[in-house]
Write a structure and sequence with these properties.
The chain is built from nine helices and no strands. By secondary structure, the chain is mainly α. It has one domain.
Length: 254
């Protein structure tokens, strides 16, 4: 199967940031995702769970394809592609939201999707370097994946039945920090893994190659950068949460 994939993927020049490929997705894909989220905002509880399960299942299937495709192209598994980056987490949370009863964890998970997940999707579209691949299928996978994160984030925001409180934001941040511990553990276990550096959540102990984080690491070390990075993301999550609450208020007043 790997050999078949390798022979049937379509090589391409990496799309340039804000080139035709990226711009088309940005000006058409993002508004379409937001509009779809708006149209689906009044789903029943049962239909909402089905939506989360369907989206989560599609993400899992597409992730399996991505893992197989990269393995075929590279001739071996790339441990830096372990599906536990910040933008991978909504894949798991969608399934958990679908199968678990409504409780503090599911509300925190939805808040996580509407804050950290939405930030990941938007940030990737603003700086699309990691989304632009050498093969058409892998590039499309990444662009569609992050478009799905934007859809999910706005779906949670637009859904008036999901009126979250500050406790849910706190729990979403606690969930993020818990996931950071798991990510750091993966980074330690795979520290000497073959291939590129394994750096889930970009929190070390390997140096981060993200803009600004790289400079902070060089000046102050990995630990300082990790604390600042995690704190900055948490503050941004709070800002996105406030933005979402403002939208909810506007919709509920109509």
């Amino acid at each position: 199967m790997l050999e078949w994939l390798k022979n049937n993927l379509h090589p391409m020049e990496r799309p340039e940031a804000w080139g035709a490929f990226h711009t088309l997705f940005f000006i058409i894909g993002i508004p379409a995702a937001i509009f779809a989220a708006f149209l689906l905002r009044k789903l029943s509880d049962r239909a909402e769970k089905r939506l989360y399960f369907a989206v989560g299942s599609l993400l899992i299937i597409s992730e399996i394809f991505k893992q197989l495709a990269f393995t075929a192209v590279n001739g071996g598994y790339r441990f830096d592609l372990i599906p536990f980056q910040l933008c991978s987490i909504p894949m798991y949370l969608c399934i958990l939201i679908a199968i678990l009863p409504e409780n503090a964890f599911s509300r925190a998970s939805k808040t996580f999707i509407a804050t950290f997940g939405l930030m990941g999707g938007v940030a990737s579209y603003i700086a699309p370097g990691t989304m632009c691949r050498d093969h058409l299928e892998l590039t499309l996978h990444s662009f569609l994946w992050h478009l799905t994160l934007i859809f999910l984030g706005f779906f949670v925001i637009f859904s008036l039945r999901s009126s979250f409180c500050l406790r849910d934001l706190r729990n979403a941040v606690l969930l993020y920090f818990s996931l950071c511990l798991i990510a750091f553990s993966i980074n330690l276990i795979c520290f000497d893994a073959p291939g590129r550096d394994v750096n889930m959540f970009y929190i070390g102990p390997k140096p981060s190659n993200l803009p600004l984080c790289k400079e902070i690491t060089e000046l102050f070390g990995v630990a300082v950068n990790s604390v600042l990075y995690m704190s900055a993301l948490s503050l941004c999550a709070g800002a996105v949460y406030s933005f979402g609450q403002l939208i909810k208020k506007k919709l509920s007043d109509r």
